[in-house]
Specification:
By secondary structure, the protein is mainly alpha-helical. Helices cover about 85% and strands about 0% of the residues. It has nine helices and no strands. It comes from Peromyscus maniculatus bairdii (Prairie deer mouse).
């Protein structure tokens, strides 16, 4: 029974990686082709493309890590491999999280309506706000990598004086350390995203209230834009929250065993964020949604052909 559950969770994980790879790859391809055709790219498309690239790298780094740990478990305790895997995972996770946060900031500044002078100043300079946010995030990334790198060196120095194996407590503690530091640094962008979400709700509430007082149609463009943005941000924040809680749970666990059923379940839940959110972005963006119709039509035709060739 345990083997069946484990295989099922691994199949789900593989499906999520495939869906995430196809979804993010589709976003990258559509935006690059559109860029080549128009010779220009919007700020939103830039964020979409950069986010899709970071998520594609994140998903494939996870796949390679699981593959290597399964086929060559002894490699996972060498200093060089520890550095490469932990730092690369930190890099991809960092840009996945912060670019998602920049996307929520972009939607907030573009759609929300406040008369506050600070908000208006930021709204008129949304590109600079996103750029500065990414630059500031690089400082947190630099500090995070320093922590992890120093810990790898300390573990390797300690390893030379002890018999060391992949089942040792020190390896478990190292496995937890990148998760712990990434969880701590994820709290900052998570708080920013939550704040923009609450402010967007407040902006919509004020706008709808003003529309009611003025006896105007509640389906005006501003209200529609607010509601559309809220749907996108709610989905994003829901998946983001689940991802963050999984990081917290995994960093608090006493053991890190990738074959453990509970850990596999947590991995399946966490990967729903970079995989599922890419599908949400495609459905919520007019250009990406329209570009997906020919692909879906082609897949439908192919499935019909397969059914016709069946017994």
């Amino acid at each position: 029974m345990k083997a069946i559950v484990q295989d099922t969770l691994l199949i789900i994980l593989g499906m999520e990686i495939i869906i995430g790879s196809l979804g993010n790859g589709f976003i990258i391809l559509v935006n690059i082709l559109d860029w080549d055709k128009r010779k220009k790219i919007s700020s939103l498309d830039k964020i979409f493309t950069a986010l899709a690239i970071s998520r594609l790298a994140f998903l494939w780094s996870l796949f390679l890590f699981l593959l290597v740990s399964e086929l060559y478990p002894s490699l996972m305790i060498t200093e060089k491999v520890l550095k490469i895997t932990s730092i690369f995972w930190t890099l991809t996770n960092h840009f996945n999280i912060w670019l998602s946060t920049c996307l929520s900031i972009f939607y907030f500044l573009k759609i929300a309506n406040f008369s506050n002078s600070i908000f208006l100043y930021l709204k008129w300079r949304v590109r600079k706000v996103v750029s500065v946010t990414l630059l500031v995030s690089l400082l947190f990334l630099f500090i995070n990598i320093i922590f992890i790198n120093s810990y790898v060196i300390r573990i390797d120095g300690y390893k030379t004086n002890l018999s060391y194996s992949s089942n040792s407590n020190d390896y478990v503690q190292f496995s937890r350390f990148p998760l712990l530091t990434n969880t701590m640094f994820t709290l900052i962008p998570f708080t920013v995203s939550l704040t923009t979400f609450l402010l967007l709700i407040f902006s919509l509430w004020r706008h709808v209230k003003n529309m009611q007082l003025n006896v105007k149609d509640s389906r005006d463009p501003s209200t529609t834009a607010h509601k559309k943005a809220l749907k996108m941000v709610i989905t994003f924040l829901f998946l983001y929250t689940i991802f963050f809680l999984v990081l917290v749970i995994q960093s608090c666990k006493n053991e890190i065993q990738h074959k453990n059923l509970f850990n596999l379940l947590l991995d399946d839940i966490a990967i729903a964020f970079p995989s599922g959110h890419s599908c949400v972005l495609i459905l919520g963006n007019t250009k990406l949604r329209q570009a997906s119709f020919p692909v879906l039509w082609w897949l439908r035709c192919r499935l019909k052909d397969v059914e016709c060739l069946g017994p």
